[in-house]
Amino acid sequence: MTSSNSEPPRLGEFALIAKLFAPLAAKDEGAFGLKDDAARLRLPPGDELVVTVDALVEGVHFLRDDPPRLIAKKALRVNLSDLAAKGAHAKNYLLALCLPDWIDNAWLTDFAAGLDEDQARYGVSLLGGDTTSTPGPLTLSVTALGSIPSGRMLRRKGARPGDLVFVSGTIGDAGAGLELLRGKASNLPADARDYLIRRYRLPEPRLSLGRGLIGIASAALDVSDGLVADLGHIAEVSDVRISIDVRLVPLSGELVSLWGSATPAVLRAATAGDDYELAFTAPPAAQSAIADAARAAGIAVKQIGRVEQGGGVELLDEAGKGIAVDRPGFTHF
Amino acid sequence: MTSSNSEPPRLGEFALIAKLFAPLAAKDEGAFGLKDDAARLRLPPGDELVVTVDALVEGVHFLRDDPPRLIAKKALRVNLSDLAAKGAHAKNYLLALCLPDWIDNAWLTDFAAGLDEDQARYGVSLLGGDTTSTPGPLTLSVTALGSIPSGRMLRRKGARPGDLVFVSGTIGDAGAGLELLRGKASNLPADARDYLIRRYRLPEPRLSLGRGLIGIASAALDVSDGLVADLGHIAEVSDVRISIDVRLVPLSGELVSLWGSATPAVLRAATAGDDYELAFTAPPAAQSAIADAARAAGIAVKQIGRVEQGGGVELLDEAGKGIAVDRPGFTHF
């Protein structure tokens, strides 16, 4: 981990970073104790590297008062979720931290503790990074590194007419959790409220499921922009039409308690984003293999639609009629 | 390149980013046109990955009014310099961009043009990235990826008593350039002034030299914190003492015109930072191989000192007497 010329002037912070972050890099010899200009990663013979980066900004992706432990975990997990969508084995990450003046030692200690817990949970370790000061909001970027046997990576491209469409877990929970965090009043029991908020704050990257889908799924991605928007990405790059039955979109009991289960609730769930579930396509013959992979990963997987010739994403109601979607997700397209 | 849920609202920006950045990723099939969740990098058999990340923040590492083309190049080059220090072959980079409201299409176009020029110059290409909005200063991080035959990476650790100490190019130019940019009055001719400012704004990663030093240098790094501070890093991790003869530190004619060549000028140059030259150690028997590598890379390399038993960095004056250094560079240690 290098430090820029202009690190924050707080006494002891650099020593503290060394003390807090070097242990996170101790497991991997290629991190060189964060004391070199660059790190080294050796891949198993025949594997290729899978790499992704995401930036998180205070006031955009999290709030200043959010627990540092959760900020750390979310930053790591959204990147691991990208690796999961590729079927990759997660190995390492790099961390670039831009620290404003208000960050103190207690904040850094809790932040590092969050990383430590998730390193153990996902079997990854810190490989390198950079720390600098910023006159603006706390900003961090995580680069996640994984490996996969050469040529086996799951892609967004590859869905074919006749394939079925699947999604893991439940959809919309994170969107509902964000609504609750923003102060939406509800009669939800405390545990349901906690569940939905936790789904927003702490996504669960589906790494085991992703690895289990290698050679089975024809296309895959993680649902971050919103189910409809993300399936639109698959439809676009695969040059197919994706048709979703709104009755089949999996909703949690907690979400149904808050929003109900009628079509407008499903539409909201399917356009809310931040789910970090895997959505994927596969031929009908793969259904039992998918069930096996889901069982092995310990996560439900549900068929929600079909791949057809054409383009775009269509949602069908109970009567099989198309539903207009004004805003498929958060991204503009 | 993925986009966050909260991208800036300017019309057409995302389309513009796709239009500007996708061409930068066109050369490498593993970037998947920036349309997937993660990218793929295949290494030559027997090679290992070399990876580094650096963040740059407006108001800390560059100014808002700096030409976007130069910001792009500096962000890329400081990372390539880290790869150069390892002897790595530079291959790809990832870019995380946090864009404030004031960034417009003209800014982005010039920024992308800078990346395009340096991609051609260094034979690298964009592999992936992330774009988000920020309420704060423009912030970017670059993750650089390179490869090297397994086990051959140059390290900061490895200097041995009896080795000689070398540095490429000239030292202190960037520090003088920054001083001029900050408004320091001088009688320098315009071309000397331009040279020094350019050395600050546009470092030149010594990739060819780094590759040429594989198997020759016993320890290496790039000079970013300041020559004395950085040699201190080598001394620390190699557990040796490094002794520098101030008369041997290479200064450009332009720097001498501004600061002179007496010991205080050399001290300033050796503690200024941002040089991005390579400093390295090697046994005396390697001198002709080093001269060959320098010639092949087209850059001067000069012996400036010796490695001894002990610890720390010592600067010796004309009489061989130690010179006190209050502040060896910009980092605190």
Characteristics of this structure?
333 residues, alpha+beta, 60s Ribosomal Protein L30, Chain: A, Phosphoribosyl-aminoimidazole Synthetase, Chain A, domain 2, 2 domains, seven-stranded mixed beta sheet, disordered N terminus
Characterize the biggest β-sheet of chain A.
7 strands, mixed
Counted beta strands of chain A = 13
The CATH class assignment of the largest domain in chain A is Alpha Beta
Element string of chain A (H = helix, E = strand): EHEEHEHEEEHHHEHEHHEHEEE
| Class derived from helix and strand content of chain A | alpha+beta
User: Helical residue percent of chain A?
Assistant: 25-40%
Most extensive contact = A-B, 76 and 76 residues
CATH topology of the largest domain in chain A: Phosphoribosyl-aminoimidazole Synthetase, Chain A, domain 2
| Assigned CATH architecture of the largest domain in chain A | Alpha-Beta Complex
Strand order of the largest sheet of chain A: 8-10-7-11-9-12-13
Oligomer: homodimer
Strand content of chain A: 15-25%
Radius of gyration of chain A, rounded?
Answer: 21 Å
Q: How would you name the CATH homologous superfamily of the largest domain in chain A? A: PurM-like C-terminal domain
Number of individual domains of chain A: 2
Distance between the termini of chain A: 37 Å
Mean pLDDT of chain A: 92
